Amino acid sequence: MTRTRVRAALTALVLAGSGVLVTGQAAEAATTLQELVPQPVQTTPRADITFALTAEAKIQLGAATARKPAEHLASILRPSTGFQLPITDGVTGDGIVLLNNADPKVGQEGYQLDVTPKQVIIRANTPAGHFNGVSTLRQLLPPKSEAKTKQPGPWTVPGASILDYPRYQHRGAMLDVSRHFFTPDQVKRYIDQIAAFKINYFHLHLSDDQGWRLEITSWPELTKIGGSTEVGGRKGNLFYTQAQYKDLVAYAANRGITVIPEFDMPGHTNAAQASYAELNCDNKKRPLYTGTDVGFSSLCISKEITYKFVEDVVREVSAITPGPYFHIGGDEALSTPDADYVKFMNRVLPIVKKYGKTTTGWHEFIKTTKDTTLVPQFWGTTTSDANVAAAAQRGNKILMSPANRIYLDMKYNKNTKLGLNWAGYVEVKDAYSWNPGAYLNGVTEASIRGVEAPLWTETIKTSSDIEQMAFPRLPVAAELGWSTAANHNWDRFAPRLGAQGPRWKIQGINYYASTQVPWKK
Questions:
Q1: Which of 394, 393, 361 is nearest to 378 (CA)?
Q2: Using CA atoms, how far apart are residues 310 and 345, in angstroms rounded to an integer?
């Protein structure tokens, strides 16, 4: 056997060890195929094929519903390549082609991606599938394709056929804008970053003790007073107008992401109670709060005005939120007696339903209802919760966010400057080393809706801070939510994660270079 053939054979074995079977001459051209995060269900390299994107290429629509995914792809590639990349109806030549009629097995969010010498063809059954196919194509292109300024080519994609679909229907990221406020542009930056990893839900935590962050026209003091400060005491107009919120929702939708608004209740409500005296049982406004303690606040459960307040908030926010979900919080209501908590939920859950939304909330709320359409979000640090297990056995689908695994605000280790450690230290391997479908006693794979990675912001003040805590753990959550359990292997995953490093550097992402990950130079 010649040295060349030996090298090719060894390369094939290495790539096969990464979960991608590559043989012979295909190995040299298939570098990016074993670097995809999340890992596709099935990847078949195509020997001796390389596609090169040229200045004459077009993004061609064989499916009218694929226009938004096509526009998203064009917005990424035009600055770096300098190419015009016009979006055209119909398939007429070389370039990137988006078609309908994918294999039925890919479902509503999967796709097929085929690389030929003249075209990259993405087939999907819905716009969501095309968005996910676009995310994969981005990673098959050189990292410099993510640059905001013109770069030298070539812009090549290795020959391959990919068939892919998600493990779970919900792959989420949450950003707390209540502890520290983030501008619309900062939120959009994070939306862009999570979109690259097939995240399809963006949970926006809009109210807490430290701040009320969305204009409610029927209760204007919520933002005038409650939206005037944050942790640490910075003052200003720290809230979104409804127009700004609608713009954020549309921005996310144009990247295949559905926004879930959260207004935490009946606890975590000091900002509201500081804004309106009537929300308190003693009819006295609470002082604004800029610390980080939890569990001390509660709406007045016995007063009818409380439920008018809740209904007005749900009504106004639901009217400007196209997505189907409304998050009511419900966690850490330590100042609300159990009987009052049940009474409150019995009043509030029908209100959410009245305005056409499905309730989701932190898992504590599920003990008050047997409605199997509602979505409890598990955030605990143990592997047992009797109420969540009972809900799953009734038929509820559980969203998994165990704090000691996937809370992005937990410190990586004792030397991490940002974040908290109440749930422990969560290094990258810790974030990866759990199975959402077999984590909670009494909750099986069939009862899991998906995975969400929350980022609380007690210590997070800037976009750079967000990135330091979210990367590389946010892509870990994306992998857990998308890729099959059979592909769950740290030794194969770590190199794929490390291959994202050059791409993040070009994007200007301030990621944490964990020593657990073999970072590609």
A1: 361
A2: 11
Strand pairing of 211-212 and 207-208? antiparallel
* Average pLDDT of the chain to the nearest whole number: 94
The DSSP letter of residue 56 is T
Cα torsion 336, 338, 343, 346 to 10°: value is 110
Q: Letter for the amino acid at 520?
A: K
CA dist 468 and 460 (Å) reads: 10
Distances (CA, A) of 86 to 94, 95, 430: 12, 10, 44
Catalytic residue among 215, 278, 311, 332: 332
DSSP string for residues in 305-327: HHHHHHHHHHHHHHHT--SSEEE
Q: Which tens digit of pLDDT belongs to each residue from 173-226?
A: 999 999 999 999 999 999 999 999 999 999 999 999 999 999 999 999 999 999
- Cα(178)–Cα(213) distance, integer angstroms: 6
- Residues 426, 473: contact at Cβ < 8 Å? yes
Instruction: Check residue 12 and give its pLDDT.
Output: 39
DSSP tag of 486: G
* Structure token pair of residue 152: 């030298």
* pLDDT digit string, tens, across residues 64-114: 999 999 999 999 999 999 999 999 999 998 999 999 999 999 999 999 999
| DSSP letter for each residue of 81-139 | H-----EEES--SSEEEEES---GGGTTT-EEEEE-SSEEEEE-SSHHHHHHHHHHHHH
Give the residue from 69, 42, 124 showing the smallest Cα distance to 483.
Answer: 42
444 φ, ψ (degrees, to nearest 5): -95, 170
Instruction: Report the DSSP pairing between strands 95-99 and 207-208.
Output: unpaired
Q: What is the C-alpha separation between 503 and 511, in angstroms, rounded?
A: 11
Beta carbons of 167 and 482 less than 8 angstroms apart: yes
The tokens of 186 are what?
């900062």
332 noted as active-site residue: yes
Which one-letter amino acid corresponds to residue 244? Answer: Q
Q: How many CA atoms lie within 13 A of 1 on its CB side?
A: 9
Q: How far is CA 422 from the centre of its chain?
A: 23
What is d(CA 369, CA 388) in angstroms, rounded to the nearest whole number? 11
Rounded Cα–Cα distance for residues 272 and 293 (Å): 16
Q: Which residues contact 389 (CB under 8 A, 6 or more apart)?
A: 440, 441, 442, 443
At a CB cut-off of 8 Å and minimum separation 6, what does 6 contact? none
Which residue, among 437, 338, 456, 424, has the nearest Cα to 383 in the 3D structure? 437
CB 495: neighbour CB atoms within 10 A?
17
**411, 425 contact by CB (below 8 A):** yes
Cα separation, 286 vs 339, in Å, equals: 24
DSSP letter at 397 equals P
Cβ(453)–Cβ(469) below 8 Å = no
